[in-house]
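Sharing a chain and its predicted structure for anyone who wants a worked example. Both blocks are below, sequence first, C-alpha coordinates second.
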Amino acid sequence: MGDDVKGRRGYRAPRRAEQAAGTRRAVLDAARALFLAQGYSATTVAQIAERAGVNVDTLYASVGRKPVLLREVVETAISGTDRAVPAEERDYVRAVRAAPTARAGIALYAAAVAEMGPRTAPVFSALRDAAARDPQCARLRTEITQRRAANMRLFAADLRATGELRPDLTDDEVADIVWSTGSAEYYVLLVQERGWTTERFGEHLADLWSRMLLAPGA
Protein backbone atom coordinates (compact mmCIF):
# COMPACT_ATOMS: atom_id res chain seq x y z
CA MET A 1 0.00 0.00 0.00
CA GLY A 2 2.90 2.31 0.77
CA ASP A 3 4.26 1.88 -2.78
CA ASP A 4 0.81 2.60 -4.17
CA VAL A 5 0.58 5.86 -2.21
CA LYS A 6 4.02 6.90 -3.38
CA GLY A 7 3.02 6.11 -6.95
CA ARG A 8 -0.09 8.25 -6.71
CA ARG A 9 1.93 11.11 -5.21
CA GLY A 10 4.51 10.80 -8.00
CA TYR A 11 1.72 10.98 -10.55
CA ARG A 12 0.04 13.97 -8.92
CA ALA A 13 3.20 16.09 -8.61
CA PRO A 14 3.75 16.61 -12.37
CA ARG A 15 0.01 17.14 -12.79
CA ARG A 16 0.00 19.87 -10.14
CA ALA A 17 3.02 21.50 -11.77
CA GLU A 18 1.27 21.42 -15.13
CA GLN A 19 -1.87 22.96 -13.63
CA ALA A 20 0.19 25.68 -11.94
CA ALA A 21 1.95 26.48 -15.23
CA GLY A 22 -1.41 26.66 -16.98
CA THR A 23 -2.75 29.04 -14.37
CA ARG A 24 0.34 31.24 -14.69
CA ARG A 25 -0.04 31.36 -18.49
CA ALA A 26 -3.73 32.26 -18.19
CA VAL A 27 -2.96 35.07 -15.73
CA LEU A 28 -0.16 36.51 -17.88
CA ASP A 29 -2.27 36.25 -21.05
CA ALA A 30 -5.11 38.08 -19.30
CA ALA A 31 -2.80 40.77 -17.91
CA ARG A 32 -1.18 41.31 -21.29
CA ALA A 33 -4.55 41.61 -23.06
CA LEU A 34 -5.92 44.10 -20.55
CA PHE A 35 -2.74 46.18 -20.25
CA LEU A 36 -2.71 46.57 -24.04
CA ALA A 37 -6.44 47.23 -24.35
CA GLN A 38 -7.01 49.71 -21.52
CA GLY A 39 -3.61 50.56 -20.06
CA TYR A 40 -1.79 49.58 -16.89
CA SER A 41 -3.34 52.20 -14.60
CA ALA A 42 -6.92 51.47 -15.65
CA THR A 43 -6.52 47.71 -15.25
CA THR A 44 -7.31 46.19 -11.87
CA VAL A 45 -6.08 42.92 -10.44
CA ALA A 46 -9.71 41.84 -10.08
CA GLN A 47 -10.26 42.34 -13.81
CA ILE A 48 -7.19 40.26 -14.63
CA ALA A 49 -8.30 37.49 -12.29
CA GLU A 50 -11.79 37.45 -13.78
CA ARG A 51 -10.46 37.26 -17.33
CA ALA A 52 -8.05 34.48 -16.35
CA GLY A 53 -10.81 32.54 -14.61
CA VAL A 54 -9.16 32.50 -11.20
CA ASN A 55 -9.65 34.26 -7.89
CA VAL A 56 -7.38 37.08 -6.77
CA ASP A 57 -5.57 34.96 -4.17
CA THR A 58 -4.71 32.40 -6.84
CA LEU A 59 -3.47 35.19 -9.10
CA TYR A 60 -1.17 36.49 -6.36
CA ALA A 61 0.12 32.98 -5.64
CA SER A 62 0.77 32.12 -9.29
CA VAL A 63 2.48 35.35 -10.39
CA GLY A 64 2.31 38.20 -7.89
CA ARG A 65 0.91 41.67 -7.46
CA LYS A 66 0.25 44.13 -10.25
CA PRO A 67 3.82 45.50 -10.66
CA VAL A 68 5.12 41.92 -10.82
CA LEU A 69 2.46 41.11 -13.42
CA LEU A 70 3.67 43.98 -15.57
CA ARG A 71 7.30 42.89 -15.28
CA GLU A 72 6.41 39.31 -16.17
CA VAL A 73 4.36 40.43 -19.17
CA VAL A 74 7.38 42.40 -20.43
CA GLU A 75 9.92 39.68 -19.71
CA THR A 76 7.89 36.90 -21.32
CA ALA A 77 7.28 39.04 -24.38
CA ILE A 78 11.04 39.42 -24.74
CA SER A 79 11.86 35.76 -24.16
CA GLY A 80 8.96 34.29 -26.09
CA THR A 81 8.48 31.75 -23.29
CA ASP A 82 6.51 31.67 -20.05
CA ARG A 83 9.45 32.95 -18.01
CA ALA A 84 12.24 35.50 -18.15
CA VAL A 85 15.36 34.26 -19.96
CA PRO A 86 18.71 36.10 -19.60
CA ALA A 87 20.05 37.39 -22.91
CA GLU A 88 23.06 35.09 -22.88
CA GLU A 89 20.79 32.04 -22.60
CA ARG A 90 18.56 32.87 -25.58
CA ASP A 91 19.03 30.71 -28.64
CA TYR A 92 19.34 33.59 -31.09
CA VAL A 93 22.00 35.31 -28.97
CA ARG A 94 24.07 32.13 -28.94
CA ALA A 95 23.66 31.82 -32.70
CA VAL A 96 24.68 35.45 -33.24
CA ARG A 97 27.77 35.07 -31.06
CA ALA A 98 28.76 31.90 -32.93
CA ALA A 99 28.36 33.50 -36.38
CA PRO A 100 31.57 33.29 -38.45
CA THR A 101 31.33 36.86 -39.82
CA ALA A 102 29.89 40.20 -38.79
CA ARG A 103 27.52 40.14 -41.75
CA ALA A 104 26.20 36.73 -40.71
CA GLY A 105 25.77 37.89 -37.11
CA ILE A 106 23.92 40.99 -38.25
CA ALA A 107 21.57 38.93 -40.42
CA LEU A 108 20.79 36.56 -37.56
CA TYR A 109 20.11 39.35 -35.10
CA ALA A 110 17.98 41.31 -37.58
CA ALA A 111 15.84 38.23 -38.19
CA ALA A 112 15.45 37.72 -34.43
CA VAL A 113 14.38 41.34 -33.87
CA ALA A 114 11.78 41.02 -36.62
CA GLU A 115 10.49 37.73 -35.23
CA MET A 116 10.10 39.25 -31.76
CA GLY A 117 8.42 42.41 -33.03
CA PRO A 118 4.79 41.22 -33.08
CA ARG A 119 4.92 40.26 -29.41
CA THR A 120 7.34 42.87 -28.03
CA ALA A 121 6.32 46.06 -29.87
CA PRO A 122 2.78 46.26 -28.43
CA VAL A 123 4.05 45.57 -24.90
CA PHE A 124 6.87 48.11 -25.14
CA SER A 125 4.50 50.70 -26.58
CA ALA A 126 2.05 50.14 -23.72
CA LEU A 127 4.88 50.34 -21.20
CA ARG A 128 6.06 53.62 -22.70
CA ASP A 129 2.59 55.12 -22.40
CA ALA A 130 2.16 53.83 -18.85
CA ALA A 131 5.58 55.17 -17.83
CA ALA A 132 4.38 58.71 -18.48
CA ARG A 133 1.84 58.36 -15.64
CA ASP A 134 3.04 55.64 -13.30
CA PRO A 135 6.41 55.77 -11.45
CA GLN A 136 6.69 51.97 -11.23
CA CYS A 137 6.19 51.68 -14.97
CA ALA A 138 8.74 54.44 -15.51
CA ARG A 139 11.32 52.59 -13.43
CA LEU A 140 10.69 49.34 -15.28
CA ARG A 141 10.95 51.05 -18.65
CA THR A 142 14.23 52.69 -17.66
CA GLU A 143 15.59 49.34 -16.50
CA ILE A 144 14.59 47.56 -19.72
CA THR A 145 15.92 50.41 -21.87
CA GLN A 146 19.28 50.42 -20.10
CA ARG A 147 19.51 46.65 -20.31
CA ARG A 148 18.87 46.73 -24.05
CA ALA A 149 21.55 49.39 -24.47
CA ALA A 150 24.06 47.31 -22.50
CA ASN A 151 23.25 44.24 -24.63
CA MET A 152 23.78 46.29 -27.77
CA ARG A 153 27.24 47.27 -26.57
CA LEU A 154 28.05 43.58 -26.15
CA PHE A 155 26.76 42.97 -29.68
CA ALA A 156 28.93 45.81 -30.98
CA ALA A 157 31.98 44.35 -29.24
CA ASP A 158 31.32 40.95 -30.82
CA LEU A 159 31.05 42.58 -34.24
CA ARG A 160 34.23 44.55 -33.60
CA ALA A 161 36.10 41.34 -32.82
CA THR A 162 35.55 40.15 -36.40
CA GLY A 163 37.60 43.09 -37.72
CA GLU A 164 34.80 43.96 -40.16
CA LEU A 165 33.32 47.09 -38.58
CA ARG A 166 33.98 50.60 -39.85
CA PRO A 167 36.97 52.00 -37.96
CA ASP A 168 35.43 55.49 -37.77
CA LEU A 169 32.54 54.25 -35.59
CA THR A 170 33.00 53.59 -31.89
CA ASP A 171 31.35 50.62 -30.22
CA ASP A 172 28.99 53.02 -28.46
CA GLU A 173 27.93 54.51 -31.78
CA VAL A 174 27.39 51.06 -33.27
CA ALA A 175 25.34 50.08 -30.23
CA ASP A 176 23.22 53.23 -30.42
CA ILE A 177 22.46 52.68 -34.11
CA VAL A 178 21.34 49.09 -33.51
CA TRP A 179 19.49 50.05 -30.32
CA SER A 180 17.45 52.78 -32.02
CA THR A 181 16.64 51.06 -35.31
CA GLY A 182 15.87 47.77 -33.56
CA SER A 183 13.41 49.47 -31.23
CA ALA A 184 9.70 48.91 -30.86
CA GLU A 185 9.10 52.46 -32.13
CA TYR A 186 10.88 51.76 -35.42
CA TYR A 187 9.01 48.48 -35.82
CA VAL A 188 5.67 50.20 -35.23
CA LEU A 189 6.44 52.90 -37.80
CA LEU A 190 7.27 50.50 -40.62
CA VAL A 191 5.17 47.41 -39.87
CA GLN A 192 2.06 48.74 -38.17
CA GLU A 193 1.84 52.18 -39.77
CA ARG A 194 3.37 51.58 -43.21
CA GLY A 195 2.21 48.00 -43.67
CA TRP A 196 5.55 46.25 -44.03
CA THR A 197 5.69 42.53 -43.30
CA THR A 198 7.88 41.35 -40.46
CA GLU A 199 10.03 39.53 -43.01
CA ARG A 200 10.62 42.71 -44.97
CA PHE A 201 11.40 44.54 -41.75
CA GLY A 202 14.04 41.95 -40.82
CA GLU A 203 15.61 42.12 -44.28
CA HIS A 204 15.65 45.91 -44.05
CA LEU A 205 17.44 45.84 -40.70
CA ALA A 206 20.05 43.42 -41.99
CA ASP A 207 20.67 45.59 -45.05
CA LEU A 208 20.64 48.83 -43.05
CA TRP A 209 23.06 47.60 -40.41
CA SER A 210 25.38 46.01 -42.95
CA ARG A 211 25.56 49.19 -45.02
CA MET A 212 25.97 51.49 -42.02
CA LEU A 213 28.29 49.45 -39.82
CA LEU A 214 30.56 47.31 -41.98
CA ALA A 215 33.79 48.49 -43.52
CA PRO A 216 33.94 48.51 -47.35
CA GLY A 217 34.67 45.04 -48.65
CA ALA A 218 33.68 43.33 -45.40
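Comments welcome. Residues 2-38 form the longest helix (37 residues).
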